[in-house]
Structures are given as C-alpha cells and as structure tokens.
Amino acid sequence: MNEHQVMALAAMCQVAKQVQKIAQYGSSNDYELEKLLTSIVQTSPDSPSDVYQGTENLRDGYKILLDQLSAGEKKDVEIVKYVGGLMQLESALSAKASSLAELGKSIDDIKRRLDHFAITDDTVITALADIYSKVLSPLGHRIQVYGKPDLLKQQLVQHKIRALLLAGIRSAVLWRQMGGKRRHFFFAKRRIIAIAKNHI
C-alpha cells in the first residue's frame, strides 16, 4: 500500500461525502465542488498528487477514510457503498476500450469549455453530468444514491451528483493505475490508517 493509493481512496471518500450532502441537503460548498471536479480534467499530471493540486485539498477525505476503517460509530455504510460502487463501475469502464475512448474525447471537450466558464458553472456541471449518463451509466453498474426524494428529483441536484460521481471515477482510475486492489482493505488496513493519519 503506498501514498498514492491512499490518496486516491481519500479522494473517493471526499467525493462520496459531497454526494451524500447534496442528496440529503441539496446544497454544496462551491470551493469543495471545484477541487473535486477539477480532478476530472487533470488527465496528464506531472505527478499523481497534481490531480488534486496537492494532498492538502484532500484533508477531509483522509479523515473520512479513517472513520470508515475504524470500528467506532463514525463508520458510514453509505460512504462505503459509494466507494465500492465507484470501484466496480471503474472496473467495468477499464474493461471497455470504446467507453474509455469516448470518455477521453468528452473530457477534452470540457477542457475547451473551461476557456470560457468556471468548472462550477451550471453549464459545465450539466456537461459533466451528461458524460456520466452517456458513458458510464450504460456500463450497467448503477450507483444507488441515498437522499431526500424531493431533492433527488431536482435537475441541478441530479447534475451535481453525476458530476461528482464522474470525479469519483477519476479517482478510481488513479487507484487502479497506482496498483490499488480491493484486497488491500483487508491486508493493508494498518498501513492505510498510518498513511491517512499523516495527512490530517
């Protein structure tokens, strides 16, 4: 288990927490949203941590990760389900070359939009959500989102959640690229905890 694998895990936890907040309360912190969505367009980083502009932007994610690995009451089953769902969906994506190619092309289109709009602009969030719907949803591993039904019916809430899930897939891709495997949760738990503690 290495620093970069734990960083990708922390990022997925941070995404999961934001999805949870939007699904339950309908609002999001734009600064938090910007940090996570920006990772989607970091497709050729000089180092893995550049995907998030440094690990300090993931401090909340490291804390959430620690909570999930502890035996205490801070453990959140929803967060665990979201992270597991992201990994499962990314696995289906990585097995399908045509979907990967379509995803890459779509993200390049988003980069061009960013010459004119902020990544948190509603039009960009809608475009990111559209990528998730068109490229990832057809892969068949649907991520169940838990929240208030009246909020989940709102279009902007749906778009923000899908855009965040796309950011989660970006981190799941990084997790796999860095050699992350599901078995690490069982066999490298102490190592994950030790690394995460260094970042909070």
UniProtKB/TrEMBL annotation:
Localization: Cytoplasm; Cell membrane
Membrane topology type: Peripheral membrane protein
The keyword Cytoplasm is annotated on this UniProt entry: yes
Record keyword Ligase present: no
A UniProt-annotated Pfam family: DUF489
Assigned keywords, A-Z: Cell membrane, Cytoplasm, Membrane
Membership in a protein family: Belongs to the HflD family.
Matching HAMAP family: HflD_protein (MF_00695)
Protein name: High frequency lysogenization protein HflD homolog
